[in-house]
Write a structure and sequence with these properties.
Layout: E1 12-15, E2 18-19, E3 23-26, E4 29-32, E5 40-44, E6 49-53, E7 57-60, E8 66-73, E9 77-82, E10 86-90, E11 100-107, E12 111-116, E13 120-124, E14 127-135, E15 140-145, E16 149-153, E17 155-163, E18 167-172, E19 176-180, E20 190-197, E21 200-206, E22 210-213, E23 218-225, E24 234-240, E25 244-246, E26 249-256, E27 266-273, E28 276-278, E29 281-286, E30 291-301, E31 304-309, E32 318-325, E33 334-338, E34 343-346, H1 348-353, E35 356-358, E36 360-361, E37 368-373, E38 376-380, E39 383-388, E40 393-400, E41 404-410, E42 420-421, E43 426-430, E44 438-445, E45 460-463, E46 470-473
Parallel strand pairs: 3-6, 4-7, 5-8, 6-9, 7-10, 8-11, 9-12, 10-13, 11-14, 12-15, 13-16, 14-17, 15-18, 16-19, 17-20, 18-21, 19-22, 20-23, 21-24, 22-25, 23-26, 24-27, 25-28, 26-29, 27-30, 28-30, 29-31, 30-32, 31-33, 32-35, 36-44
Antiparallel strand pairs: 1-2, 1-5, 33-34, 35-39, 37-40, 38-39, 40-43, 41-44, 42-43, 45-46
Amino acid sequence: MALLPVAGLADGVTINGKNLEYDVTEESVEIKDAKEVAAILIESSEKDSLLTIKKFISVINETLNAVISVKSYSGHTSTLDVGEDITLQGIPENTSYPGAEVSLYAVNKSTAALHVGGNVSLESLGDSKIDVATEYQGSNADVAIDGDVSLKGSSAGFGVSTSEDGSAIVKVNGSITSQSEGPDEFNNTFAFKAYTKQGGTIKAIIQGALKAIGVHPVGMEISHIFNTPDEPAASVSVEIGEGIISDGDGIHILSDGPEDPDPSLAENTVIVKGDVTAKDRGLYLTTPFPSTVVIDGTLSGGTAAVFLDKNEAVGDNLTLVVWKIEPNKDGAYAVRYDYWTKEMVRDTGFEQNNPLYIIRVVQPETGGTLYTEGTRTFEVNGKEFEVALAGDKIYLVGNPEEGYKMLTAFWDPELTQEMTADGENRFYMVVPVGGGVTLSAFLQQRPSKPQSVRPDYHVTYKEVENFDTWIPVE
């Protein structure tokens, strides 16, 4: 929630109720029992404001909120630059405010920026959230956090919203963990949420993992809200470096607005390096807008790995690229759900025709190289993946160095599934539903030819088929 201007606080930098002009540098800020709702407020409506903290910020409130607010208006820039950690602990004064929050808000061609050289830790008995919002005429938000983000409260999350041509760029070099203990009917916990309304763009790179802990949280949520069918186009791009773990849903992509919207109104791109592991739904899709989801790992969900709305348009514009999909207890990899009848049906058509399975190749340490035939190259955000559909026949071909030969090949990481030989240095397999293909091969060196003990005796050698030995032939 983006906070409104707080009465009684002046433009510029305000720390614990004391206004300190527009450009302020402090060694550290440590506040106990803040005097105002916003313990630290950086507001720019007349000129740019900058607060530089060389070391850390610590706000510990036992009776009030712990809030940092960075706001900018009318073409100005507000910036908070912290060299080390931010730690906020608070108790909500009332339901209008969170217990602990870092809030960025930019409106009307302005910019709000947050740069943190360490970790960000928020904890409260109420909401504990990072909230980034931009609105109107190209306003911008810039967030860069070098460490981890930890959020713990009755609900928790790192949320980014843009509207009316606003934009936001977020980079976190560590992981984001959101943990809640609130009851299900009041819980709104997510590790990362990207929300657009009436246009807007969001780009986020999280180098670590997303972890959502609690009562049915969401690892990552992307949502688009439209009021009319001809609004400006919106786009969201999120990259995760170490997977997603969630006690609820892994990835949820949704939209709300007029029926049969123009697909060009929104586009989503998600790239996850690592597994997406969810206790409920792995990938939950309730939008017809084009979405590209790449999971360079295993996608799994207790209810289903892929969970689609019954609407046939949902899923038609989904490009799913994944290394492996785990089936649910009923053997289904993808299901469609009817919210009216509560019926859940396995979608075998989606299973066979939609997922592009990443084909991994393990190169030998010595003896030559391996390459594939029958796969195709999928490119997104400058990253390339070799992929194939279920049912495709693909080949692993060896390019051995002199003196080596390709003996055998496998298509699973455990080296239990052998591929079928198809000539010398060439093997094939058929990609199964669910994927999980990792190709590897043994390249064995040919034994050296023995020297003749009689120079006057001419001997040649013929290779035994598996070349474990050599035999002389006159």
